[in-house]
Amino acid sequence: MRTLVVVGNGMVSHRLVEALRAEDTEGAWRVVVLAEEPRPAYDRVALTSYVDGWDVQALTLSGSDYAGDDLVELRLGDPVTSVDRAAKKVTTASGHVQAYDALVLATGSRPFVPPVPGHDLPGCFVYRTIEDLDAIRAAVEHAKATKRGRAAAMVVGGGLLGLEAAKALRDMGLSPHVVEMAPRLMPIQVDDGGGRLLRKLVTDLDLTVHTGTSAEKIEQDGDRLFTKLTNGTELDLDLVVFSAGVRPRDDLARSSGLAVGERGGIITDLACRTSDPDIWAVGECAAVEGRCYGLVAPGYTMAEIVAAQLLGRAGEFPGADLSTKLKLMGVDVASFGDAHATTENSVEVVLSDAVGGYYKKLVVSEPDDQGGRLLLGGVLVGDASAYNLLRPLVGSPLPADPAAMLAPEGGSSAVGVDALPDEAQICSCNAVSKGAITSAIHDQGCDSVAKIKGCTKAGTTCGSCVPMLAKLLDACGVEQSKALCEHFAYSRQELFQILSATRITTFGELIAKHGTGAGCEICKPAVASILATLDTTDRDGGHVLAGEQATLQDTNDHFLANMQRNGTYSVVPRIPGGEITPAKLKVIAEVAEEFGLYTKITGGQRIDLFGATVDQLPHIWRRLVDAGMESGHAYGKSLRTVKSCVGSTWCRYGVQDSVGLAVELELRYRGLRSPHKLKAGVSGCARECAEARGKDFGVIATEKGWNLYVGGNGGALPRHAELLASDLDKDTLITYIDRFLMFYVRTADRLQRTAPWVEEMDGGLDHLRAVIVDDKLGICEELDAAMAKHVENYADEWRGVLEDPEKLARFTSFVNAPGTPDPTISFRAEREQKVPVLLGVPEVVSR
């Protein structure tokens, strides 16, 4: 077994180890990763999102701790300080000596800090690592705590990294100034026209932009900083962040005698091999044939090339697609191909609408003999919806008139996936072509987006190409069944429309007219949920246990409680926003004692009472209802909780009343039946203590109002919610949430959480925003009315059972012997509470 030593532990290093271990089926290589940072590899591309929740785990790359892999050793916080090429050994800062058979340098890059006098003063930072952001956060909190007005910051650099840093500072509650030496923002990615619009759009979002100038000096001014720009502008600041580009970290290569480029970077050939045949370089530190690449996608390609060579296969770096598509503070920016029209005899076609908020440019070749033109590149600012279809066409004949492709109704309607050549790259992150995807569809049976992802890795990194995968499935003639189950040939969304249009009020009538058979455990609860949402029956008939409804429910809804592993149930009273009076808290304690229930505070700021038998449930509900509490709907596919921090009422950082809003939202949406459970959160400031961005909808306070995020969730596949709208007043915020929830209820598939619903929606978040903010479909009035009806008609389901003797009679352990305890249920004591004993299951006791 040979030893591979990888120096560095970033995204590219992780991809190298991942690729090698996936292909090294015979275990020919043992891998030792020597990392400078104190944590496993994380998504540095998404570094700015760390500010949203300050959650390191949300950035950590899957599998980056290599747990359970005996052939990978990861040493954290111990960087390599020297390489002995003759002895084929490296030495780390701790003195550890590691021999190697092959060495890969993946040392990445370092921030470039212009030599401005005062750049090293306290309060000056770079923007590169999690530690950098933690340090910036501490400085921001200190500035906000010691300053009456709004704190200010300067970001040196108006490129991609600089605007990311400015966004992070704005999200932390500062007023950022962006200083860029070039005459426009993002000078590498966009042209003058795009730069002008980008400046207007980000200025509207509370950034102050200074272009064509630079910092002349930075001086200490008491506990603040004073900065003078070369154009004479003077700024009083609380901190300065340098984000003016990067330089390859080639120090280790230089000290060990490897060839480096004139402008930096470790020189490699197309196989990523350095001047030493046993040493490779990948990622931002590598200068492939003299050129460094500062994007992650080329680094991934290098990693896979090196992995292939280590396993005896050939491979060469094919060049890199430097196209970029990103959203900065809600503003779309994209560039691809020859964005600056440097190709000889190229022609620019521009559509600019400052009022509409978009700038679009295509760079095309002069017409050939048949009048055709090649697409050479383009720039999109404000509206990048056509990017996924345009970028793969670079170098190919245009399938339509370029002006038509840029028009608001053009793009995707003017160009179909059929027009793309097989070599067109659909997924630039993982270099997956259209041909590779269509081959996976036809030859490997990939008949869904999920299967394409698993087979080709397309769509598994940034996810921007996922809509294209679905379109390729359609283009290949793959019909994706939307049937709810074998009894209905319709999707849940179509059944919702049928029930809404026909006013059918029972499952029996629905299946008789529009389905087959008697139904099953899939369609019955789904239809029951739709009927409850539509509320097409009278108030009593709308109860989840009324008439036929009672026969349609699954186990939890059947008894309005959560069944546990030993056959008992848990009871969760609603505690809106986590706020509860001492009197109600006392009643919960008394109920738990009286009925001998296991008691636990949940992650959603509620109290769960475990161990109740069916016959005890109404007695428990009676005590809770009489004390002014109601069902928390922990058993239903409906709103569970709206979690909150203490907000401006108590917290010195809070800028809005998060508790009050959380209570209002939870009471408004309680009992709303939906395709899956719903969770929400309200945070009183950007510190995000309520973890609102991990919820189906989350609200974060700003000094101007509220930011609304949608489509997040925790669980096995956690996702961060995305910003739908910012700085909203409360009435507008509630209106948008109303519409979001009702649109979700009407269009999502059965058991589909909001995160995949948004992700799989054609047009994604942009389409969702157009529907519920801009009323693109003309249905907002209808959505508003539907939510108003829900709010007006809400009734507590526990109280509904207690007031109806017929429903109450359902709650017995044995129909023929009411009050008789179930002999299969028993308990034991653990940590001073009772826990279930499962018959026939060996006991495992934690001490």
TrEMBL record:
Keywords: 2Fe-2S, 4Fe-4S, FAD, Flavoprotein, Heme, Iron, Iron-sulfur, Metal-binding, Nitrate assimilation, Oxidoreductase, Thioether bond. Siroheme binds at residue 689. Residues 426-474 form the BFD-like [2Fe-2S]-binding domain. It comes from the Bacteria. Its cofactor is siroheme; [4Fe-4S] cluster; FAD; [2Fe-2S] cluster. Residues 323-393 form the NADH-rubredoxin oxidoreductase C-terminal domain. Pathway: Nitrogen metabolism; nitrate reduction (assimilation). Residues 636-774 form the Nitrite/sulphite reductase 4Fe-4S domain. One of its GO terms (biological process) is nitrate assimilation. Its EC number is 1.8.7.1. Residues 4-289 form the FAD/NAD(P)-binding domain. It catalyses: hydrogen sulfide + 6 oxidized [2Fe-2S]-[ferredoxin] + 3 H2O = sulfite + 6 reduced [2Fe-2S]-[ferredoxin] + 7 H(+). Residues 564-625 form the Nitrite/Sulfite reductase ferredoxin-like domain. Pfam families: Fer2_BFD, NIR_SIR, NIR_SIR_ferr, Pyr_redox_2, Rubredoxin_C. Gene3D superfamilies: 3.30.390.30, BFD-like [2Fe-2S]-binding domain, FAD/NAD(P)-binding domain, Sulfite Reductase Hemoprotein, domain 1. It is an enzyme of class 1 (oxidoreductase). InterPro entries: BFD-like_2Fe2S-bd_dom (IPR007419), BFD-like_2Fe2S-bd_dom_sf (IPR041854), FAD/NAD-bd_sf (IPR036188), FAD/NAD-binding_dom (IPR023753), FAD/NAD-linked_Rdtase_dimer_sf (IPR016156), NasD-like (IPR052034), NiRdtase/SiRdtase_haem-b_fer (IPR005117), Nit/Sulf_reduc_fer-like_dom_sf (IPR036136). Belongs to the nitrite and sulfite reductase 4Fe-4S domain family. Catalyzes the reduction of sulfite to sulfide, a step in the biosynthesis of sulfur-containing amino acids and cofactors. This is assimilatory sulfite reductase (ferredoxin). It comes from Amycolatopsis thermoflava.
